[in-house]
Amino acid sequence: MTTEISVRVEDKLFYNRYLVDAGRAHIKVRPHTVPSPALLSLLKACPARCYELSDKGQVEVTVDGCVECGTCRVIGEPGGDIEWSYPRGGYGVLFKFG
Amino acid sequence: MIEEKFDAIVVGAGMAGNACALTLARRGLKVLQLERGEYSGSKNVQGAILYADMLEKLIPDFREDAPLERHLVEQRFWMMDDRSHVGLHYRSEDFNEERPNRYTIIRAQFDKWFSSKVREAGAVVLCETTVTELAQDAYGRVIGVRTDRHDGEVHADVVVLAEGVNGLLGTRAELRERPKPDNVALAVKEMHFLPRETIEARFNLRGDEGTVIEAAGTISRGMTGMGFIYANKECVSLGIGCLVADFQKTGETPYGLLERFKRHPSVAPLIEGSEVKEYSAHLIPEGGYNAIPQLYGDGWVVVGDAAQLNNAIHREGSNLAMTSGRIAAEAIFQVKSRRDPMTRQNLALYKQMLDDSFVIKDLRKYKDMPQLLHIQSQNFFLTYPQLVSKAMQNFVRVDGTPKADKEKTTLRSFVKARSWSGLFGDAFRFARAWR
Prior knowledge:
The complex is a heterodimer. Chain A is an alpha+beta fold.
């Protein structure tokens, strides 16, 4: 089973409930021209695929589907690539089962 | 926000936070518990298995009204390669006892119930409140917390950091380090709903009997990790986790691993036709004894996952969380009842009491295991599972080959893959780390 399996993460996130705090992203990517290896690794390591590469080759984050696991914080915060906070109280992912 | 001062503020309402707040409130302390979710449990993710013994110490009659799923009568371990698994099952009628030892639970529901007990005990529980930082005095002593509410500073004699594996407060205040990528695993999980009878038929269960499967092998593609399949009443929790450092290094995706695990021929029939109702992800502390941070200081203690208290070998975390929360509360109560201040010196009692408990004793026993499994991940999670599977197939397949030749083939495959010194070295290192 070496072939890659295509997975639509959007479909998985569709099962979840969220209360999006519009205009107050709880994760910010530091502006950059060339992304660091740590930042690039988030394109694949983020389980909600919140990180995408822009047309200009920069890493961008969209937090609407974030499941607040903290993986990107562990990888990206030490080098200053990202800033990570928790969403404001009551906002973000709302697990029904957890 | 709140003018009055509390005896203790507990940050977080998971297993550790609830155990701590409950114990403190019952001892008569004035407790404020802060939780960022809309209710206690809405941000919490776990497999999940509940160990009765540790909960009984807090709520002896929990079986009467706690939302439990199935009591476990069976435990399966699977060593998997791409097309097979070699299994070790332990099932016993002894587990069909009056007060069962382990249950599957659904955390969001269980934690909501746990929180109701905390409120009944008299703690003030405030949800939808994110604590943004610790309030410290000029000497660095923790004197309270700041929250995202209006005028959100509130004071207490001691702050209990039950903020989970990804807690920000302790690291922001430089009380402990941020978890490192090789000390935490990222696990992803789906909830697969099926009719009750279907689950019972597929997993060989009667009534409320339950089973769990822990799986390791090529499913983690050479990374340090494990998969799990837990039978609940009307759904199956299915997930897989690997070290963050390994994800970073390999470029594997967590959802790709999950998908591959679900499609494995041993797994797919168990969940066929299910309706998925949630996809979640969470970090798991995997660093063991050597990753435990400073556990107390002036005006604060840290408990549960935030303190990396997780036994990765036995897949036990929530009971260590509950126990550390309870012990921290007992220590705080003792300091308080002596009318002593909540200084670093006095709160060292928490560490002493924890050292004497199974929590630290168990973690110390396996202190070298996390590193061994990580450094040797290719061998333990890829090479050996493949070799064992081939050996088993060789053993059971009847094809006219003399048995002595079969045994030679199996032995040769092991020696070829790992060499004699490699095999003995692995066995020795594993035995030493297990001891």
